[in-house]
Amino acid sequence: MGTTQHFNFVFPLALSNLKRLFRDSYVPVPLRNRNLDSLWGQIPGLSSAVAYLHNSAHMAHRDIKPSNILIYEEPSGTGLSLKLTDFGLSVDLSRARTWEQGSRARQSAWLYDSPEVRNASPITGVAEPSAKIKIPSSSDLMANDIWKLGCVFTEMLAFLVGGGSAGVAEFRDHITTTEGNVSSDVFNDTRFDDGEQVKPQVLEFIDRMAYRDYRAGMLQAMISGMLAKSALRPTIAHVCEKLAENNFPNIRYNDGVRVIRFIPEDRLACSRFDTFRLKIEEWTGRPIDWAPLNQPLPKLDAGDYMAIWKWHGIDLFLALSQDEFDRYKVIPLLPLTQQDLKAQQAARPNFPMQSGNLSQPSQSSLGTSVFAANVPPAVQTSIDTKDIYWCIERNFTEPTEIYLSPIQNAETLDDEQLFHQVNTAIGSTEGWIRRLFSWKRCTAIDFVQFLVIWENKDQVNPIQKELPPPATPFYNHSVPLPHDFHMRAAGLQMVFGLRDPKKGSGETTIIDMLPKKTNPPPFPRRISEPGWGLHAKMGFSQRKFLAWLFFCIILGGIFVVVWLVFINPTDLQNAFIPSFLFATLLTIAMGLLQVA
User: Which Pfam families does this one have (predicted)?
Assistant: First the structure.
């Protein structure tokens, strides 16, 4: 017996769509208790989706409207995501086009059509019998999509700024025009004007929204342009370019290593708790590992930016000054015009690889000539290996002693293996007794030049933050430009990688860019011998401190039990006071040693 095979398409279930959200008196049940304010960040995403259709797929959607934009929950669960759907009317711009006048789908799209398309293809029964139908060109179809997207953005402004669906209803009332007995709440009514103008009431409402919210102000000129006459309407690439220029929320940038978004200082609110924790870090002089709590946001000065990116599900952030932000030229993930892409690529700084001290312009590095002069003749072998030198601080030393620990054969490792070996090196440098009583762990990593301070010893002294200059023999690295930002970003990722080495499994992104020394010859441990590597800085760990307090509580509880059992079963006061005083004094003494 023959069997019939059935193939099915399976799509993720949407929470709702924008039409229901805009028109229903109450927020749809699946969207209640959701962060509706996150829809602001979906405006660049919708623009990018249309840009992909126009520029990559060479398609026109032709039916962009709120009912065809579905609402999903973001994978992180923190916000909402919008997806453009329903390609039943879409056409391939590279082939002959068809026009389905009078179809039900076509008539539903007509309400959001641009005025020139409405004129060219009137609805059956409304148009004059002698009206001619114009087959639109590719540019007409793309301009029509721009108009439709501008209409959707305007209704999103009404919803987000105007107070939900009531704001959308207010917008529709505001733009309703009446001629005789006929009323119309569409953006343009070709029956009452020349067919090429948006209603002035629409622009008035956009201006009103721009006055009430800064994000609407960022979109005001762009949306007005999208609703202009077809000849003046921007392409979708220019819409994306405008969003990127304004640094609109949720735009992400690709620096070749990570995907980053920027938040200006004036849009970032620092909580009092974060401010308090930053003061503690300032007092200790080092970043603190606040796990299991999130790290506090860095303090920003006026004009600064916060760079934020995700690394294996962890939100990482760095503060950038205005100068650092200007030098850190990255390309948005939003599609831009080719002219703008070339301008951004031309603006990327071509600094020489020689980094020098990061606080000064590029200059010759201390000790480079000394190192080159003291290199013994190399013995050529068939196998070269590469080592990464780590400068690791030893706790409970005053002044802090720093020891050199090479990670050998680095070219054979992935990031996970690197993190495991560095954790092992930190443990062996501290010793088990120091590690047992220490409240510290690695909380910062710098790219440094170091000097050996004792003959044939591993003790070193990091002298400045820098990468090995290109003229330095036997050293190489692949840190992208600008070096200062990528060094800080890589250092931050390594700190979190040391906490959970599995995050680097199968990856070599970090280890590939680190400075490595090629062997032979081996690194000579002579006084003042320069080298380049990484400095693992130790800072306080909240988790280790809490573990110490828990240990003191357990120890005090044991003392109380012993007192009550063997000395006096009713003397609770004298049982608790000695244990409390002992734990307090021991904690203070340990704390002083940790600070030292």
Answer: Pkinase (PF00069)
